[in-house]
Request: fold
Amino acid sequence: MWRFAGKRALAALLVLFAISVLVFLIFFATPGVDPAARIAGRNASQETLAQVRQSFGLDQPIWTQYGVMMRHLFIDRDLTSFVNRGAEVIPQVQQAIPVTLSLVIGAAVIWVILALVMGVLATAYRGTAVDPIIVVLGVIGVSLPVYWLGEVVNLVTQSRLHDTIFAWVPSLGYVSLSEGFGPWALHLLFPWLTLAVLYAGIYARVLRSEMVGAMNEDYIRMARAKGIGEWRVLLRHALRTSLIVVVSLFGLDFGALIGGAALLTEVVFGLQGIGKLTYDSLQNFDLPVILACVLYAAFFVVLANFIVDLLYAWLDPRVRHV
Amino acid sequence: MSASTTSTSTTPATPSAGPWLNAWRHVRRDRAAMAAVVVLILIILMCLAAPLYENYVAHTDAFTSNVNGTYVVDGQTKPVLEASTEGLGLGVNPIGPTWSSQLFLGADNQGRDVMARMLFGGRNSLVIGFTSAIICCVLAGIVGIVAGYFGKAVDAVLSRALDVLWAFPVYLLAICLSVVLINSSITIGPVTLNSGSIILPILIIGIVYVPYVARPIRGQVLSLREREFVQSAVGAGAADLRLLRREILPNVLPTIIVFLPLMTAINMLTESALSFLSIGVQPPDASWGTIINDGVGLLYTRPMVAIAPGIMLAITAVALNLLGDGVRDALDPKARLRGGV
Amino acid sequence: MRARRTSLVVLPLSAMLVLAACTSSSTPAATSSASGSSTSSASGSTATTGYQAAHAGGTLDPKVNYTLQYWQLYQATFDGLTAFKKVNGQDSFTVVPDLATEIPTPTNGGKTYVFTLRPGIKFSDGTDVTTDDVVASFQRIFKVSSPTAGSFYNGIVGSDVCLKTPATCKLDAGVIGDKAKGTVTINLTAPDPEFLYKLSVPHAAINPKSAPTKDAGNALIPTTGPYMFTSYDPNTALVMKRNPFFKEWSTDAQPQAYADEIDYKFGLTVEAEVTAVENGQANWLFDPPPADRLAEIGSKYADQAHINALTAFWYAPMNVNIAPFNNVKARQAVNWAVDRNAIVKLYGGSTLAQPVCTFLPPEFPGHVDDCQYSNPAGTTWQGPDLEKAKSLVTESGTAGQAVTIVVSDDEVNKAIGEYLQSVLNSIGYKASVKAISGNIQFTYIQNTNNKVQISLSQWYQDYPAASDFLNVLLGCASFTPGSDSSINIAGYCNKGVQAQMDAALKTEQTSMEQANAQWAAVDKAVMTESPVAPLITPKLIDFLSKDTGNYQFSKQFYMLVSQLWVK
Reply:
């Protein structure tokens, strides 16, 4: 088990390394991105351009530049942005983390509760009209483009009905939890709901199909035969076994979201989280920030994968031989 | 284009007709899935009829700027893009929905007929969604089967490659590629990639989701590999290729097919997200994503430009998801699919 | 001045200005000893309305930053030896003495300027402004590789050495301070009639000699103006407070400010910024309001919006070195074909833009109304002539060729790009449009390696001189093949026209009036050659909250931030 974990950890490092190299290569293969030209400003003389290139080490071979950037990122921890030259990259990421965490955790609470209720109800009332209605609701949630939903929500709450029923909705942006739970939650309410609609649909679907499958298993029939009540069977037995799948899914999704997968939601609602930081750095072609964001995101994705794999290995020893 | 119909209606034609035919009958009994098929066919027909609509109903050109265009309403000629006259006279508003044959959903910021563009855009969205889903499923099938079957070093390398792909910033790749391709094209086999080509979003979206499909397939092959009938065949000295073809593929194929409609839905949503970030279908061509993106700029004054294609996208995705559920129940009830993005 | 387009370099900029509670008195004189008037306590809290952000406009170093956004703020913080007059309107193009007591008459054939420093001026850290600081500031231009070091200040004696080896820059013979007399002598290698303009932009601002000899980044350099920077985080906000050592020495050069504090916050969507100003949660937004909000601003909030013409233009440079636009008829065809009124519409209507037909914008030195591509003919642009354009394309033999238009991917640029594509198609080309991130589009279209045929770009003046348009954008010196910094995007280098421009520059030494007549002739000659299609001259809309007053607009540096007050 430990050897397996060690091997996988090493492989994870390799994955991160490969991603950083790829990002670097792709960046410099793109014409027009030369950071020196953009730093030097419009109509800079060729001498100035050369000076800037030299002072930023952009005249070095690309692998030297890679090494220098990695050293500044991981060892000196003082890598600075190309665009905002006083701004160190690591504090930017650190500032963005609480925003993303606030968004993702809040949305996760909502979608897990919603999915549990929908999944259990759909299973309990399968064969009646309730089941297909819930299924279709879930499918609709899955099928809405999240940024489109966000824009429409903004249109309704910030403009069309802002003078009437949505007068209580604050303007867009993030308010720190330190300014009070109320304002924090109020500012995040619609971003939470928007993100949760998507995932609630996914999880309700998965949960329902797992539970319906479980209800046909032998141990459920045995439990029923023993005269245990239907709801009790549903909640104590079917739900419990089905949750394993849901939990592993949740691990993967949560990891990706913490890493910035909620990019579009953050952009649409003006939340300065990891996703928005990534988006801005891509728009700016700001390589140091891009690298930091991408590695940060990849770390969580790889970590989530790693944990889920470990869980499977623990449950199913055959996997370990691979 | 005809995403779902081909995937379902051609299945009975495959050699091992028995189980496929059963599956088809199963799907036909599934009312939700059949309703989805009908909706999809309707949407496809609508999009196919786009040129007819453009020429004979709307009498417009969906791809040419119509900034100085006019529109006749109640005998009065009005500009399609109307400058505001109130107060300081700031801003120019395209005409809103007329709910009649011309400019049914109004005009976009170039004065073009949004309804006509939406029908044309649907073609691109459907083609991108379906083609990239096929690419994704084929690639994922190959990678998943090879990794699962050969195991060991092969599996380790492929699995890590999938990890890299999964954690890689697709937007960066897409943005950079679209810049690189402005004046240089890349030729891969018979396909030539140049800027503005629809192949670019197809390839990018197709490849991005490979890990998503390949992982469960790899898992499935891994456990098949341990099964008795495969183990005994290996013991009997059966060739790898033969084993793959005879024992593994038939067992994995249903899973791959189950993924197809779902991936089509996911890919269409992804295409719209890429368009939102200005990568993807290039103007003046349209997809539902690019029209939504155009519409977001007009959201406060002409919300219909963004809302209508969004609804079309959602309806199509719902239908594809329902169809996907039906196909799954028919072919592979145990497949663990999650849908969504 | 740094173009508005370059504000896109940090897209989405999303900056919002919140003025802190202001002195209720309406004359600046009443608060001239600013440190005493600490009236900010009561409503000061309103300045921190909950606006979050994580994005900013680049380094705060006045010698390095080249964005309109920060140059506007530097007007209320930094001073040069000279300054553009801080007043409303056309008068703001006048240069007045700032840290110097008066504007000297150049001697030595126009090559030597002797400035006398005003005594008693202190930096915001309490130290005196001395001639040492002035000398160090000029060295610093080169030490930090200021964007304009090689273009504005390469006429100073010794600058050639400094450009090569910035670290040891001395300017021994170029900038000489005399501490005892309080004078600074600047020697140029050749007379430069535009030198006073160049001294009046922030890159020539006087910083303490202790300022870092590299880009200061987020570090706060002490200021001389009515405000000092007290905190800067490009991810959240920039805070400006009263400089306790500021005393008004010249109302023209540096008037006293009204508000006690300015909070400049970054990072919301522009839509949200507009909403915030409408609701009075912020006083002003930097970014141009999005198209779908213009109508409501123009009607419901008309008395809070201020519109001013800018000395700038949007234009389509055509690469004169590659097909099809290496053919003058093909280029002229584009100028005939483009309907400027359509572009005005796409920009937001006739209140916000005006069609142009000359290279120099209206009301700019050297501009004379003239239009070679108008149907019906006139001195200003009246309408396009598609038939003429088509026949020119046919004559040129370039019909049917593929043309790619490269534009940046923001809404307005993309819309104009799509329109241009339709136009090019209609006159016989096979056009496509390619929208790429505004942050690389500007450098991408400059590099000849990228073989861009036609693009969409903007130019906003640095200072009010015709050469800043014509010589910069179409001069041979601005064309460097294979470089990302080659602002002559059209790649146009015509010996005859260059000679005309050199002559005009020379005439500037004796008579600006005559020189401007020569520039007008250059403009005309250039437009005949048609290396670019001028499209529109834009206007700027400043949208203020209801309780914000005393709006003043300098044509040089835009809204005077220090003069706003809050009721």
